[in-house]
UniProtKB/TrEMBL annotation, chain A:
Family designation: Belongs to the bacterial solute-binding protein 2 family.
InterPro entries, per database record: Bact_Solute-Bind_Prot2 (IPR050555), Peripla_BP_I (IPR028082), SBP_2_dom (IPR025997)
Primary subcellular site in the record, as a coarse category: other
Keywords: Sugar transport, Transport
Protein name listed in UniProt: Simple sugar transport system substrate-binding protein
Automatic annotation (TrEMBL), chain B:
InterPro entries given in the database record: ABC_transp_permease
PANTHER family linked: ABC TRANSPORTER PERMEASE PROTEIN YPHD-RELATED-RELATED, XYLOSE TRANSPORT SYSTEM PERMEASE PROTEIN XYLH
Transmembrane regions: 30-47, 59-77, 84-102, 108-128, 135-155, 192-211, 277-305, 321-340
Native organism: Streptomyces clavifer
Keyword Cell membrane: yes
Name recorded for this polypeptide: Xylose transport system permease protein XylH
Localization: Cell membrane
Keyword Cytoplasm attached: no
Length: 327, 348
């Protein structure tokens, strides 16, 4: 045991790399932290409560954006999440109990959040909604909504599929119960001239996702496009396509490092980005602006962060940002 | 259990009066109460907003939503069985009343009672299958769990076209049903949800059944040793089916709360909650092997769970570590529980 430990330590000491690696990352982080806040407002506390599950790539990027803005705006930023409506509502309640100075919530399950958001508004806490809930945001009393209109994003996908001459597409839903996901597929179906089918998979079980897509591609050879609703599922779809020996093009919502690589090497057709970093960053920054200067953005309408269609042409310049986890 | 020199040799050891203190030390929930006090003090120190009066209402509400289910689940575990379908059954109960009322354009209360009947049917199915097939309850209820998960989504999409039910907030009877299942009282500026009353009532009823009725004795008997219980005339089958009906009833109550709080139900929810109920019962002193435990203990377990899950947020800890803290708390509480019980038994 001791010998193994010594060997590992020895190896890591001898084999130092002067470029890259964890140390470079730490140095960069330290330099960023020393930047400190750019404002002289008091240290307000903003809470963000989302419907994210545990360890979600997308929400990690949102959080990074929010933290960057919090650093700049001298904000004490609190993040919590639950994928169950009731739990998420309870988390918002705890934020109200804490008397936070601003609240950011996602409304994937609007009915669960209605009462508690109203309570926050009644308690005088400014609320901004992000990601899901553009339709409900205003009536719930939120200042503004920052996100992507899921129907519009879906329609953009339908148009793009038409441009690429696709005839039969598959829309892969990985989260049963997410209304936004249904809207994406419905939007794509609306503008797409070919036929589109929905396929439900269990997003928490990657091998199952791959097997389900594979089975579908096997059974229906005429499918020439697969649209996944989350970046990690695109990789599973690519694998499924290879095993099934299908010619279908894989397209996806959202972006991450492997999607950027996939776009560059043409294993993926296009990605629809909703710029999660912007959703976190802008939410915190707009709350700060509201507290500081009573500014509100959007003029009563949602502030859209997407859809942005990304193809092989854009992939190269984005690779740097997806690598550091901000795109 | 040896009678020490304290007892007079001619009296039967079973007739000896034990002192109230000793009785208290022998209770299954004692360890969990010590644990609850420890968790409370811990968060009182590390989280400033934990002691605010409004936080009190929030923590109690979180505890009540778990506790309503944990009480009958504890009884079931004392009876030696599990119910893995308890979590999704809550969602099923909510979906049934919502969709029945909407589709039939009936008074909401009609849906609520139809839901009660169907949910009790699920419980009876669990109990009947278990006693008929003699398979472990783990397998039987795992099957029910998966089937209900599928039925919830399948029926909801078939009937409503989407994954959530249609809003029934404007229907007749909704307001009165909301009063019963999802209203709140404001006492001294603090909001107390009505689920807390349901919880207290359920725990009281479960405790009464367990300690004061013949059915309660049967529960301990079938959980301790079903074969021996049957031999002395305990109706094992009836007892076990009764226990599953109890869980189904609580699932119905929780389901109605879910529906009338938000007036729309998401079909995919509830998965994983069954473990939370079992955890609360185990923290509260239920043995996983059956034959030992208490309903009050399950309530204390639910309070520990509520304090921990909300305390971590009040303490502003990074939520990435949330599950770790929860697991550590669970282990510590259970260890403390076991230790206290051992000490209590040693002093007998």
């Amino acid at each position: 045991m001791g010998a193994v430990l010594a060997a590992v330590l020895g190896a890591s000491l001898m084999g130092c790399s002067s470029t890259g690696g964890k140390r470079a990352e730490e140095r960069a982080a330290k330099e960023a932290a020393e930047g400190r806040s750019a404002v002289n407002t008091p240290r307000w506390t903003f809470a963000m409560v989302t419907h994210s599950g545990d360890g979600d790539t997308f929400w990690d990027i949102v959080q990074k954006g929010a933290e960057q803005a919090a650093l700049k705006d001298n904000i004490n930023f609190l993040y919590s999440h639950s994928d169950e409506g009731q739990q998420q509502a309870e988390l918002v309640q705890t934020a109200i109990d804490k008397k936070v100075d601003g609240l950011i919530v996602s409304l994937a399950k609007p009915d669960s959040m209605k009462a508690v958001v109203a309570k926050a508004v009644a308690a005088g806490i400014p609320v901004i909604t992000v990601n899901s809930g553009s339709a409900e945001s205003k009536s719930f009393g939120a200042l503004t909504h920052i996100g992507q209109d899921e129907s519009i994003a879906g329609e953009a996908v339908g148009d793009e599929l038409d441009d690429r001459g696709r005839k039969k597409a598959l829309c892969v839903l990985h989260e049963q119960g997410n209304v936004g996901h249904e809207q994406r597929c419905a939007g794509a179906k609306k503008t797409f001239d070919g036929t589109m089918q929905n396929l439900y998979v269990d997003g928490t079980n990657m091998p199952d996702v791959q097997a389900s897509i594979e089975a579908k591609l096997d059974s229906d050879r005429s499918i020439d496009a697969v649209v996944t609703l989350g970046a990690p599922f695109a990789a599973a779809a690519v694998k499924a396509k290879k095993t099934a020996g299908s010619k279908a093009e894989i397209d996806t919502f959202d972006l991450n490092a492997s999607v950027a690589t996939g776009l560059a090497d043409k294993s993926l057709g296009f990605a629809v980005d909703q710029q999660p970093y912007l959703q976190g960053y802008e939410a915190v920054d707009l709350l700060w602006l509201h507290r500081y200067n009573r500014n509100v953005l959007g003029g009563g309408l949602a502030v859209l962060t997407g859809p942005q269609i990304i193809t092989a042409d854009d992939a190269d310049e984005l690779a740097e940002y997806t690598d550091r986890g901000t795109r | 259990m040896t009678a020490t020199g304290r007892t007079a040799p001619e009296t039967d050891e079973r007739l000896v009066r034990t002192s109230p203190l000793r009785k208290l030390l022998g209770r299954p929930e004692l360890g969990s109460i010590v644990g609850a006090v420890a968790v409370f003090l811990f968060f009182a120190i590390v989280a400033d907003s934990f002691l605010q009066s409004s936080s009190f209402g929030t923590v109690l509400y979180a505890a009540s939503t778990i506790g309503i289910m944990a009480a009958p689940v504890a009884l079931l575990m004392i009876g030696g069985e599990f119910d893995l379908s308890a979590g999704v059954m809550v969602t099923s109960a909510a979906l049934i009343s919502s969709m029945f009322s909407y589709q039939m354009t009936a008074n909401v209360w009609v849906g609520v009672f139809v839901s009660l009947l169907v949910t009790l049917g699920f419980g009876a199915f669990n109990g009947f299958m278990l006693t008929r097939t003699k398979l472990p309850s783990f397998i039987i209820t795992l099957g029910t769990f998966l089937m209900l998960t599928g039925l919830n989504l399948g029926f909801t999409k078939l009937i409503s076209g989407t994954v959530s039910t249609k809003a029934i907030g404007d229907m007749e009877g909704f307001e009165s049903a909301r009063k019963v299942f999802a209203s709140y009282l404001t006492i001294g500026g603090v909001e107390f949800k009505v689920t807390i009353l349901w919880w207290v009532a359920l725990v009281a009823v479960c405790t009464w059944i367990l300690l004061r009725t013949r059915f309660g004795n049967w529960i301990f008997a079938v959980g301790g040793e079903a074969g021996a219980a049957r031999a002395v005339g305990v109706p094992v089958i009836r007892t076990k089916i009764g226990l599953y009906l109890g869980v189904a009833f609580a699932a119905w109550v929780s389901g109605q709360h879910l529906l009338f709080s938000y007036d729309v139900v998401q079909s995919g929810e509830g998965v994983g909650n069954e473990l939370t109920y079992i955890i609360a019962a185990v923290i509260g002193g239920c043995l996983i092997t059956g034959g030992y435990g208490s309903a009050i203990g399950s309530a204390v377990g639910a309070i520990i769970f509520g304090m921990t899950s909300k305390g971590i947020v009040y303490a502003e800890w990074n939520p990435d570590w949330f599950k770790f803290f929860l697991g550590a708390m669970l282990l510590l509480a259970t260890l403390l529980n076991a230790w206290v019980r051992k000490r209590a038994e040693a002093t007998k």
